[in-house]
Write a structure and sequence with these properties.
The chain is globular, with a radius of gyration of 23 Å. α7 (about 195-210) packs antiparallel against α8 (about 215-220), α10 (about 290-315) runs antiparallel to α12 (about 325-340) and α17 crosses α19 (about 465-480). It is α/β, with parallel strands linked by helices. It has a 5-stranded parallel beta sheet, with helices on both faces. It has a 4-stranded mixed beta sheet with strand order 1-5-4-10, with helices on both faces. It has helices at about 35-40, 40-50, 65-80, 115-120, 150-160, 165-180, 195-210, 215-220, 240-250, 290-315, 320-325, 325-340, 350-365, 370-375, 380-385, 390-395, 400-415, 435-440, 465-480, 480-485, and strands spanning about 15, 30, 60-65, 85-90, 95-100, 105-110, 125-130, 185-190, 230, 255-260, 265-270, 285. β4 (about 85-90) and β5 (about 95-100) form a beta hairpin. The protein contains 20 helices and 12 strands.
Length: about 500
């Protein structure tokens, strides 16, 4: 098993740590220790830790979910001293394997809530970051306000000093710091959300205001919420993939991570209590993240859902299979060049066509083996985030709606869980309940347009788009996905 004892006997070709791990502090607390975080933020911080004067920026990971799965994950991290390997794979198959030691501690919140609160209140903690998914911020899409009526939030509000949600933990940590006369920490969202810093601000201040208006005022005056744009394709790692990674590296790692060799992080330099020298690890600091965010969300993420839904219906299971299909590659290029790119306000020095070509190369990476089910998971949240701007601009300008209507229709048909070959699969949609799925399967093909996934343009006249979606759903059922794609 990989742990600190085995660091001195790593297999040839595995990059060792460039720093003494015992000297690494705990300056960052991170909620949501998933594969993306481990291949992205932790990877950047791991590079910083090898630089002079950066040893204080180690990370404490926090898991919010208990139960057998959460407890098993916590045990694995603890048994491996929070060490793991990262395998980066290029489109041509070239690989790099490195040990990541940035994660210094892992806390399972339900098992020891006070340990998490103590860490948040510790003056050593200067940044609290999170990857809690696009739909995890509990914001009412119509009002833009934090939803106080959500069950777990209501429970935290009833017992704010004994929280269970990320909102409760962060705000209680800030309350303790304020009471002790300590400076606050920066709250950093690393999720794929438009203006994710502003969303995080609305969520945490909204919760704090319900707990204590004076505390909320202090947070607004002292805590910063930088916006960020994050990008790295990081697939899930099942048992077979884990074994294959270990066979290739020679390691015995229960927690290996696989990622493409591309990574990008664009950040506002707006930290209230210091930060790592991330610019020396390749992070791009800018005054306004919005333009970079628009490019990534509306080109990469939106086309991922488009290809993922259509690919699943055609019987594909991996991302690289979709762009190897001539019809799907043509569809993606048409969506990018005709629908997305002409309506994006990109940074002045950003070449959208170069970015488009790079996306095709990234999607074609067979070694990453990114599954379409992962890409489409929580699609109801992703559609709202990734497609809304392009849909709104298209409706406002009278732009051609054919490919957009196809994307929505394919997404809804994909939710039914069966491809055109008759094979079943299980879409992961944590925000859709039984009533929502009944709308998906309703004989009235317009019924599913009431899903919250499409709330982002609910205030607009979408009559033509709705009609096109219904027409396209019917055509997919009658003539098949490929026949419909070939007409676009």
């Amino acid at each position: 098993m990989l742990n600190e004892t085995t660091l001195t006997t790593l297999p040839a070709g595995v990059q060792a740590l460039a720093y003494r791990r015992e000297a690494v502090g705990r300056g960052i607390v991170h909620f949501g220790v998933g594969n993306f975080f481990r291949a992205h933020e932790a990877w950047y911080v791991n590079q910083c830790l090898g630089l002079p004067g950066q040893a204080q920026w180690g990370i404490v990971g926090v898991g919010l979910n208990g139960g057998p799965r959460g407890e098993a994950k916590a045990r694995q991290f603890q048994q491996q001293d929070c060490l793991y390997s990262l395998t980066e794979v290029a489109a041509d198959g070239a690989r790099t394997v490195s040990i990541i030691g940035a994660l210094r501690e892992y806390l399972l919140a339900p098992a020891d809530p006070e340990a998490v609160l103590a860490r948040l209140a510790d003056p050593e903690t200067r940044i609290v970051s999170m990857t809690i998914t696009e739909g995890g911020y509990n914001i009412d899409e119509e009002t833009g306000r934090f939803r106080l009526d959500e069950a777990t939030v209501s429970a935290d509000l009833a017992h704010p000093h004994r929280p269970a949600t990320v909102f409760g933990y962060v705000v209680e940590g800030l309350r303790r710091r304020r009471e002790a006369g300590m400076p606050p920490f920066t709250v950093l969202s690393c999720d794929n959300l438009r203006s994710n810093g502003h969303v995080a601000h609305a969520a945490f201040v909204g919760y704090a205001r319900a707990v204590d208006p004076d505390l909320a005022d202090w947070i607004e005056a002292n805590v910063t919420f930088p916006c960020s744009m994050v990008d790295r394709i990081t697939p899930g790692v099942d048992r077979a993939t884990r074994q294959a990674l270990n066979d290739a590296s020679g390691l015995d790692d229960d927690l290996p991570v696989l990622a493409e060799d591309f990574s990008q992080w664009v950040l506002e330099d707006n930290f209230c209590n210091g930060r790592p020298a991330l610019e020396k690890a390749g992070v791009q600091f800018v005054r306004d993240v919005a333009g970079y965010e628009q490019v990534k969300v509306r080109m990469l993420n939106a086309s991922h859902i488009l290809l993922g839904a259509a690919g699943l219906l055609l019987g594909y299971r991996y991302a690289h299979e979709t762009v190897a299909d001539a019809d799907l590659e043509r569809l993606a290029n048409a969506y990018w060049t005709l629908d997305a790119m002409p309506q994006i306000d990109a940074p002045a020095d950003f070449d959208l066509d170069v970015y488009r070509r790079r996306l095709l190369s990234r999607f074609s990476n067979q070694a990453v083996a990114d599954t379409l089910l992962r890409i489409c998971s929580d699609g109801a949240s992703k559609v709202r985030v990734f497609w809304t701007d392009t849909v709104r601009r298209s409706l406002e300008s009278g732009h051609d709606l054919d490919r957009i209507a196809f994307g929505i229709a394919a997404y809804l048909e994909m939710l039914r869980g069966r491809d055109e070959k008759g094979e079943s699969y299980a879409p992961l949609e944590p925000t859709l309940d039984a009533d929502d799925m009944a709308l998906v399967n309703d004989a009235n093909l317009a019924a599913a347009l009431a899903l919250p996934a499409f709330d982002g343009w609910r205030d607009m006249d979408a009559t033509a788009l709705d009609a096109a979606v219904v027409k396209t759903r019917r055509a997919i059922r009658e003539r098949g996905v490929r026949a419909v794609i070939q007409e676009l």
